[in-house]
Design a protein that fits this description.
Distance between the termini: 40 Å
Shape: elongated
Strand content: 5-15%
Number of helices: 6
Number of strands: 4
Structural class: alpha+beta
Largest sheet: 4 strands, antiparallel
Length: 139
């Protein structure tokens, strides 16, 4: 197993991936050409695959057994990847919003009564409900 330049990221050469996954090098090469697998090229033109490619190959083979074409599998894997990125982005935005809401609530609690009333008037009831809902989802 080869370590990449990025610390903690293990990379496999095509032969190692074939051995660990039980899929032939020729099939792995074909999947790479189709865009089902991502590989990095070294300066000596060797392909290196992330360790997660083992699981991805398992998923591809499972979907093939269910009768899906490689093009259908490619579309589905791309969709799953986009949804995963969207969910991560939403979680990051929710964490940021949680910090902002917590900060706002601290400011409200620290201010005098007149200022509290002024701040509360600036925040609509819908915003308060949204913030409360998001806080419930985050925690």
């Amino acid at each position: 197993m080869v370590r990449s330049d990025t610390i903690g990221t293990e990379k496999l050469r095509i032969g190692e991936l074939a051995e660990k996954s039980g899929i032939t090098k020729r099939t792995i090469d074909y999947y790479t050409t189709l865009g089902l697998l991502d590989a990095e090229r070294s300066s000596s033109n060797y392909r290196y695959y992330p360790y997660e490619a083992i699981e991805r190959l398992r998923v591809i083979e499972e979907k093939k057994l269910k009768g899906m074409s490689l093009e259908e599998i490619k579309r589905e894997l791309a969709k799953d990847s986009i949804e995963e990125i969207d969910i991560q982005e939403i979680r990051l935005q929710m964490q940021y919003l949680e910090k902002e809401v917590s900060h706002l609530l601290e400011q409200i609690n620290e201010k005098e009564d007149n200022t509290k009333h002024s701040i509360k008037q600036k925040v609509s009831s819908e915003s308060v409900a949204l913030m409360q809902s998001l806080l419930l989802l985050i925690t």
